[in-house]
């Protein structure tokens, strides 16, 4: 297993190449992404066990979407049946990764209690919208920033881990280890990637809405809908495809395996 360092510009190219994969078969990738979401929503609706079952299934479901991206790259025609294909290989390890991610997320929000006396943790556990006065409090905003900072190493450890477990047969510990250090070794392209994602999904739409609002608030409401649709049906599937592209480029052995 070898993770190669990439130049910073590759982070932007992950997005570009993700869009190219999306253009190969927009219907397939959109189906897989929305199927992924709908499955998690359905699991969360199951009383008692749903709140645990959903995060356990996230790694396997994400592998299913990545299998679809790999099928797109190979011009395979049977991609619509791949949504649940992530449960077919190294399933127990993927369930363990889901459990570890859930535990890590709870630990992060529990640590945020050091800043806001547990307000953020209670909101996350209750899955409720926080009251408006709390949203604007300095203590809550500081707690949110603290939690986001702690989430970075957690996301680094899990970015490639499901694919390493499913495609390379690694144990949960090894998958987390290689994922974390692969991200650390490629912090420059990941920084560019993050800026690109933020620019397309937040900064550019926000700037356009601010400009439109200055001329016509009514037109701004129409603009919100006009921007939301391409972001949801084009950029989100492109984003999932970019996850696959980043894995394909970073892990040399996986490139060779994918082309075998």
Describe the structure.
The protein is mostly helical. The protein has one domain (10-258). Helix content is 81%, strand content 0%. It contains 13 helices and no strands. The longest helix has 34 residues, at 217-250. It is globular and about 50 Å long. Residues 253-260 have low confidence and may be disordered.
| Total number of helices | 13
Provide mean pLDDT, rounded. Answer: 89
Number of domains: 1
What is the distance, rounded to the nearest whole angstrom, between the alpha carbons of the first and last residues? 16 Å
Query: Which residues sit in consecutive blocks of at least 5 with pLDDT less than 50?
Result: 253-260
Instruction: Report the helical percentage.
Output: over 70%
What is the overall shape?
A: globular
| Strand residue content | under 5%
Please count the beta strands (DSSP E, at least 2 residues each): 0
Tell me the major beta sheet.
Answer: none
Whole-angstrom Rg: 19 Å
């Amino acid at each position: 297993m070898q993770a190669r360092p990439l130049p910073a510009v590759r982070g932007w190219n992950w997005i570009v190449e993700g869009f190219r994969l999306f253009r190969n078969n927009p219907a397939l990738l959109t189906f897989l992404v929305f199927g992924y979401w709908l499955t998690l929503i359905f699991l969360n609706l199951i009383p008692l066990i749903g709140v645990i079952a959903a995060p356990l299934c996230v790694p396997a479901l994400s592998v299913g979407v990545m299998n679809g991206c790999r099928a797109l790259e190979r011009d395979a025609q049977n991609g619509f049946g791949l949504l649940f294909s992530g449960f077919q290989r190294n399933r127990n390890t993927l369930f363990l990764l889901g459990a570890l991610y859930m535990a890590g997320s709870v630990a992060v929000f529990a640590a945020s209690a050091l800043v806001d006396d547990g307000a953020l943790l209670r909101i996350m556990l209750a899955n409720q919208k926080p009251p408006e006065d709390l949203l604007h409090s300095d203590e809550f905003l500081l707690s949110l920033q603290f939690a986001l900072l702690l989430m970075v190493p957690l996301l680094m450890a899990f970015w490639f881990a499901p694919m390493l477990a499913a495609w390379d047969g690694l144990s949960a510990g090894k998958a987390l280890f290689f994922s974390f250090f692969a991200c650390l070794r490629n912090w420059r392209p990941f920084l560019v990637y993050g800026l690109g994602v933020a620019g397309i999904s937040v900064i550019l739409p926000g700037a356009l809405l601010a400009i439109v609002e200055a001329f016509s608030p009514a037109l701004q409401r129409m603009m919100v809908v006009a921007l939301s649709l391409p972001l949801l049906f084009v950029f989100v599937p492109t984003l999932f495809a970019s996850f696959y592209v980043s894995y394909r480029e970073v892990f040399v052995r996986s490139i060779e395996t994918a082309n075998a």
